[in-house]
Amino acid sequence: MKKKIKIFIDGACLGNPGPGGYGVIICGKKLYKEISNGYYLTTNNRMEIMAAIIALESLHDMYNIIINTDSKYLKNGITKWIKVWKNNKWKTNNNKSVKNIDLWIKLEYLSKKHFINWNWIKGHTNNIKHDRCDFLAKISAKNPNAIDKIYQKIKNF
After folding, report:
1. Which residue from 110, 132, 142, 143 puts its CA 20 to 30 A from 94's CA?
2. How does pLDDT run across 53-66, given as a tens digit for each residue?
């Protein structure tokens, strides 16, 4: 039987685009881990997806996971839209290129290693762990130390 854990994630951006960050909390039996980082120039949606990627990359075993996010973009993207996008050769229903393809591909790959229940939670409603992720994401956005190379390449920075 796979071990059970809960993951809380959040992304933030000071301006959109602008400096951004993510916050992650992973918790289970005998496990509590916080992860955060900030980027000089990115978007809020990229930070939401990045939070999920970083959380999954930090796991070394297979898990039964509940990922809690306040991003409907992330939840719907990975549970519904990605199938349509792939069938449409990474085009939306309006025939536009899907944004953040690099991150969606990576997230889908990492997600296949676990059984994941993607849970949407309303943000800023006194959920202690999610509020902590929000804090970590905002602090990281205020103190960036990394470059979102793909985003900056797309935007020609």
Report:
1. 110
2. 999 999 999 999 99
Q: Which residues are annotated as a binding site for Mg(2+)?
A: 10, 48, 70, 134
CATH, residue 97? 3.30.420.10
pLDDT per residue as tens digits for the range 120-135: 999 888 899 999 999 9
Say how far apart CA 22 and CA 122 lie, in whole Å: 17
In the chain, the number of structural domains is 1
Q: Is 48 a catalytic residue?
A: yes
Could you read off the pLDDT of 35-46 as tens digits, one per residue?
A: 999 999 999 999
d(CA 157, CA 155): 6
- Range 100-115 average pLDDT: 97
The binding site comprises 10, 48, 70, 134
Active-site residue, selected from the candidate residues 20, 23, 38, 70: 70
Answer yes or no: 70 catalytic: yes
